[in-house]
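Q: Structure for this?
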Amino acid sequence: MNIETAGLIRRFGRTEAVAGVDLQAGPGVFGLLGPNGAGKTTLLRMMATVIPPSSGTLRLLGRDPGAFGPRREIRRRLGYLPQSLGYYPSFTVLEFVEYFALLKELPPARVPGAVAAAVEQVGLGDKARARLRTLSGGMLRRVGIAQAIVNKPELLLLDEPTAGLDPEQRVSFRAMLRDLGQRASVVVSTHLVEDVGAACTEVALMHQGKIVFRGTPDELTARGVAGGAGDAPLERGYTAVLAEARS
Amino acid sequence: MSGPELTGDRGGLAAGGPLPPDVDLGRVWLGVATQVWRRRPGRVERLAGRLLRSPGLARALVTTPSLLLGWVIATVVLLAAGAVATRASGTPWVALCAPALAAAGIAYAYGPGIDPAWELSCSMAVSDRMVLLVRALALFGLNALLGVAASAVSGAAAALTFGWLIPMTAMCGLALATATVARSANAGVAAGLAGWVIAVLAGKAVDGHVLTAITDSALVLPYLAIAACGTAIAVYMTRIPRGTA
């Protein structure tokens, strides 16, 4: 298992953002759904080793992220796209991706090839030397994805990765996710249920810091057959589960 | 999202006619792009990479906001102006400015508030604590060097040429501690500047001389204590949070 959590809790003052999450995930694309404030981003930030849990157990890639050595090893094999990724406006696409490849301690000899491959993979080859301040929001998001995949991560955490992408780019991105999910554990936090239906092998729905549903996209769809609001079958499943959790 | 699917099966793309079926043009293009896009690090970055034995740390060092060329030039200009003013007026402006300049620079070595990709940097194998340590040491060294050079040029007495180094250490410690506690580089700058202004004004209030904050030997121990406490606080605040596995 690449991700193992048990009773994972994260508090901010009196607020319990993540309230006891038990989760195991191996290779594949794992979708994390839920309304605003459900705790998806906090859970992802803990998995990205940006913040520690308040209590509970977290193991990533078979290692304890609380200890220095294992954490460094996890980070070398980790790809992370935060929800709001800041950029250095004066950097070019190549410089930005290369900077994070170096910070991930990729062997220096491998860096130029890895950067070129990541930039090509997100379709920004023709913008490789463009300054980040000149790029559109969708392009910047793709730069963020490029830095996340530059080290061929075994654990890839993407928070709202398709925000700002146009429909054509989202279709390509889902194909890339499916490909990455063949060998890595990919966790995608999103509001867009169609992304989950198209790319994810498994899905979890969070509500008030807890996982209230876990299964395949088909199983989530089935939960909406009896009721639930929404235009698409998966949306109906999503709203039906949420309504049940709230009641 | 992937690049153009250029494979040998799509023969006829090359001017010389159909390509052999086993030629993967996508792979060829990547090889070309790798060479064409390869960035050659600057001299300072190469030197830092050799000294630190980490290309990532070296890159993080040369991207420090307060080590960028514009900031360094601004520091040099201010210290040069201070040296000229010292020669003209006799008031040791370099000694009075240097601690504040160094404190501001050190505070800007810390990410939150000024590093737009701070959240991402916190998930990297090269730890943010190590990055901060290297940046802070480099900034301290550079500011001390520039300050001593400006003091020497200004013709100040030896006690003044080096006397501000200890207050500078204290203000740097104060700025760094505040920045890490408040998780804001700007708060660190404010604390460093305010701390130094208070020290100078308090010295003047006691014996009517602005140089008391630099020349009074009774202040050495308090300055060292502030520097030590500031450093300890910064180290504590950037510690590795323990996991619960």
